[in-house]
Write a structure and sequence with these properties.
CATH superfamily of the domain at 15-117: Nucleic acid-binding proteins
Helix content: 25-40%
Strand content: 15-25%
Order of helices and strands: HEEEEEHEEEEHHHEEEE
Distance between the termini: 152 Å
Length: 261
């Protein structure tokens, strides 16, 4: 068939279907043999190995839409109840009588359509609002979880910072303990008071044994320390390891730290 001819046939078929009379399901007995659109609410679905019945009366004794087993691939039996039970539908086809009740045998899914009612729209709106509310609740819960996780991360970071600071202090203490202490400074040498100006080398050389205390004082000055000894002896200390010892007559007898004359 040529495309133009096929399009023409399809248009004619659609127009014919659109022109079909719509009748309520409880008036189908009056339209047996006619090709119509039956409108009503499916009140029960019953399937067997041979067929599935969509009943518009709870007793299944009045009008039914029938799907034969050979068309189960187009009308899966396990889906019919969930899709159509309790829903308002339109069934297109020729009404025939079987077992003294009217029915339409369905072979094309296009011949069975859902009719959206005001209640359906309200239910859809309610379902959409409920889904939106559930989504918002989940988002709120997710935000709360993120906030709690952020607080936990901040607390963990604070503990890590404190631990790092403690480890640094411990490391410094270990390094300090492993570093040997510097040796103590040497004890200061006794100077016997403030040191006197060191006399010239020639003056030191002129100090000789037998000199009187006045002569020694005149040459090298007053001693820093005078230490009395036994039997009238005394020792004058001049610092830098120098000293002069006098006998009981006041004559120099021992010279320490002085150069030879």
């Amino acid at each position: 068939m040529r495309p133009a001819a096929f399009a023409l046939v399809l248009a004619v078929a659609l127009q014919a279907r659109a022109a079909d009379t719509t009748v309520p399901w409880d008036q189908t007995e009056q339209h047996v043999g006619e090709t119509v659109v039956v409108e009503g609410r499916v009140l029960g679905v019953h399937c067997s190995q041979l067929s599935c019945l969509l009943a518009f009366d709870p007793t299944f004794n009045r009008f039914t839409a029938v799907v034969q087993a050979e068309h189960f691939d187009r009308f899966p039996p396990d889906q019919l109840d969930g899709l159509y039970s309790g829903r308002k539908v339109q069934v297109h086809g020729t009404i025939v009588t079987r077992d003294r009740k009217p029915e339409i045998i369905l072979s094309d899914p296009a011949d069975l359509k859902l009719v959206e009612t005001k209640d359906d729209k309200k239910k859809q709106a309610a379902d959409a609002a409920d889904a939106q509310a559930q989504l918002l609740d989940r988002l709120d819960a997710a935000v709360t979880n993120v906030e709690q996780l952020t607080e936990q991360l901040a607390a963990t970071q604070d503990r890590v910072d404190r631990l790092i600071a403690q480890l640094e202090l411990t490391g410094q203490a270990i390094v300090a303990a492993a570093t040997p202490a510097p040796p103590p400074p040497p004890p200061p040498q006794a100077t016997y008071g403030e040191p006197q100006p060191r006399p010239g080398y020639e003056a030191l050389r002129t100090v000789k044994r037998g000199m009187s205390a006045n002569d020694v004082r005149r040459l090298i000055g007053d001693p820093q320390l005078v230490e009395p000894g036994g039997n009238g002896w005394t020792t004058w200390s001049y610092g830098y390891g120098r000293s002069v010892s006098f006998d009981d007559r006041g004559r120099a007898q021992s010279l320490v730290g002085f150069p030879n004359p």
